[in-house]
Write a structure and sequence with these properties.
Chains A, B, C, D: Its main location: cytoplasm. Chains A, B, C, D: It is found in: Cytoplasm. Chains A, B, C, D: Keywords: Amino-acid biosynthesis, Cytoplasm, Diaminopimelate biosynthesis, Lysine biosynthesis, NAD, NADP, Oxidoreductase. Chains A, B, C, D: One of its GO terms (biological process) is lysine biosynthetic process via diaminopimelate. Four copies of one chain form a homotetramer. With about 250 residues, the first copy, chain A, is an alpha/beta fold. The first copy, chain A, has helices spanning about 15-25, 40-45, 55-70, 85-95, 110-120, 145-160, 220-230, and strands at about 5-10, 30-35, 50-55, 75, 100-105, 125-135, 140, 170, 180, 185-190, 195-205, 205-215, 235-240. Chain A is about 35% helix and about 30% strand. In chain A, strand 11 (about 195-205) and strand 12 (about 205-215) form a beta hairpin. The longest helix of chain A is centred in the middle third of the chain and has 16 residues, at about 145-160. Chain A is elongated and about 70 Å long. In chain A, about 55% of the residues are buried. Chains in contact: A-B, A-C, A-D, B-C, B-D, C-D. The interface between A and D is large, with 48 and 48 residues.
Chain lengths: ~250, ~250, ~250, ~250
């Protein structure tokens, strides 16, 4: 018998990929597929132990409140959480002993690991730059993930008491050295055919270390969601970010 | 005032790079350069707090014994340590409270991190392969580092209860799928112009994670040695492998 | 007014992608979509100037014969052409002045260019290896494209009078050095999440050249098909392989 | 008996690498090593057929004039050639039937091929970007080679009637999208440990093509110089740029 899983937002594109992922996993049982007009009580009737929520900012708070009340753990990929919303979720789980809620902005496990490893590596290399690659329809540059990665590197450098990166550039075309994110250069490539890719390069005497993440299609969040589903019961309370589930050091 | 450092094997090619590295580091003071015919008592006279030993299997045991006896910490890159030798070193440091000895087979920090990250990532990806690239004068294939990395991945997979990697290959030219190291394929490339490079690739649904290490010249061990020198005093007793100094999880 | 294009095999998965590609191209007009049970005369009625054929080995010969007879140029991706079949097609086009037929085993333009550039580069580098990466459901290793690439490199090396590649490997785990394709090592990686990728690495003193091709999804043949459609009228007679249309040197 | 080669600037760092390269080549005979104070007539006495000149802008014109007059072919890597100087060299070789002079700004054969392949590939891909990687002591960004590569891509795009690259970026940190070189984004990375590396990425539907060049040390120009030495006699007159010797299409 596997963990009993309900999927909320089950008929959206993302939700469908989650449904398929749960169905293929031998240790998980899909017991409920909920969408916009379905009643949440179905989850209770079906005995759901964990739900996955990829719905909308409008719906998600009600969903979490209901599930926590009924002792159902939550793995949430829906966006729109600010400090206030997180505080509210925290107040719910505090009253409901043992229930775990994971809210993560990014479930692509390779991206989460890239960020975590970048933080760990940062203090050993005097140089660090980030290059991200996306399809040309992306509206922002650099990507939020790349900025977040650079901020993590910058923080690790500050904690280690490291100064500015070595860079003797005296003559430069505008933009050549990338965007400056707290002292870490970030370069954004927009390329037909690509999906979402990030490369972090570290350098010191005689060597470099490169950590690269490639997302080839839009289902790359599924393995991370399943990690969440399998482990949420062991993380009571509110957890923000998948990395806390990966057994890595911060 | 920096840490007072003595270098043993100071006139060998490796030792010369260590000497240069110590001299350039603002927080380290080079107080002694010892080679084959020099007297170890120079170290005591010079007030060395830490020594770096890149000498020979013949010389290294005497050097460590002398230093531990005189309360000098040791960072050792010399090869040839088997269980017996390690036990002997351990017996010396046990008698000498607070003295630290670091013996590491690989000081290239990018290589050590690659191995450590590979171990951490392994259980999240059903596929994992290692490709190493070296100059064509290398005698063994795959490299010891690549085999060691693959073994680490295999161990992490076993601990996580993972089975064999997915691979439907039915028709194959001999060698196409690489060497099998405990179920992890390892490929060795021999390429004019290259020095020493290792790439670990992990894959799961819709995504891959690549960790790559490039050594561009033969001084790439220096930053790792300096990490050793700076931290050995805080690691009393015998430590084998630089990773224990990097604050990473195993 | 654009070139009038008919698509044969229009309701297969590949055909659908071709149809979409033709519809999006401003200089092309889709005038006919033919599948299994449709009458070829539709092509004539619609005024098709060029057809694209992704059907079956059973159907393709009849399709080509009909089109050539009616003065319609053919771009063919259907498999199963041996010397006999090619000779038959050649005999048809010889009778039909000015009609062009392009039969290509690979329309992924990045893969075709990788092979072409590899041939051009080969004689300048003493080392050359090929690494291909595919999803784990692939049945053969190495891929046909990788073998073909290696054969092209080997031929260019022979023509330039080059000997064996430098390789001092004396001790090796079985398979570590890859499959030997006419003296060129070929390595096959099987990786969850990947689609189809090929990397050719060349090395000589102090430098390497890497040519890499990544296919991220199954529509990567479309741009090459469109190159065929746009240029087939200027290549009367039978042409085998897209490279002849790319204005490259062999 | 090999080609008789004289090296000018033989005791400079670059010249020394050329001398070593000629000595190791079985089909070449080193017959003269000339430096600042040596007499050029030594070349004639030694029977030099080809000279390699890595001297200074001050010395090089006299050297070429002397060699051309004496029927000795020239392979020149010295910098400082403007239109006037090239015109003067051209006037000399015109008078001296059959003598070849090759003047090249870049002898790193992998870099020259990268540029040539980039030009060939450009018209098949709607997206193209250049990333160059250098040590942090480099003064200019992007590198001259990267700018030159981007200009070549831009020219090939114009010749093929291609418009602007697709890029929906609406929100951007300054510099994130690189420097704009005639519509081709160019990114410069400055990284401890690296030497000189260039990556050109092309993208179209479902696929990318990457051409990457890595220089690992400062002798990477030697193989290109030897290509020059072996072929200069077959290229009478003045040739600018090594690519003309590589049998590639422009």
């Amino acid at each position: 018998m596997g963990i009993k899983v309900g999927v909320l937002g089950a008929r959206g594109r993302v939700g469908e990929a989650v449904v398929a992922g749960v169905q293929e996993a031998e240790d998980l049982d899909l017991v409920a597929e909920i969408d916009r007009d379905d009643d949440l009580s179905t989850l209770v009737d079906a005995g759901a132990e964990v739900i996955v929520d990829f719905t909308t900012p409008d719906a998600v708070m009600g969903n979490i409140e209901f599930c926590v009340e009924h002792g159902i753990h939550c793995v949430v990929g829906t966006t729109g959480f600010d400090k206030e919303r997180l505080a509210k979720v925290r107040s719910w789980v505090e009253k409901s002993e043992g229930v775990g809620v994971l809210i993560a902005p990014n479930f692509a496990i390779s991206a989460v690991l890239t960020m975590a490893f970048a933080r760990q590596a940062a203090r050993f290399f005097e140089s660090a730059e980030v290059i991200e690659f996306h399809h040309p329809n992306k509206l922002d540059a650099p990507s939020g993930t790349a900025v977040h990665t650079a901020e993590g590197i910058a923080e690790a450098r500050r904690e280690a008491g490291m100064g500015a990166q070595p860079d003797k550039t005296a003559q430069s075309l505008e933009g050549a050295r990338g965007a400056d994110v707290e002292g870490v250069p970030v370069h954004g490539v927009r390329m037909s055919g690509m999906v979402a890719h990030e490369e972090v390069i570290f350098g010191t005497q005689g060597q470099t270390l490169t950590i690269r993440q490639d997302s080839y299609d839009r289902t790359s969040f599924v393995p991370g969601v399943l990690v969440g589903v399998r482990n949420v019961a062991e993380h009571p309370g509110l957890t923000v970010g998948l990395d806390a589930y990966l057994g890595l050091e911060g």
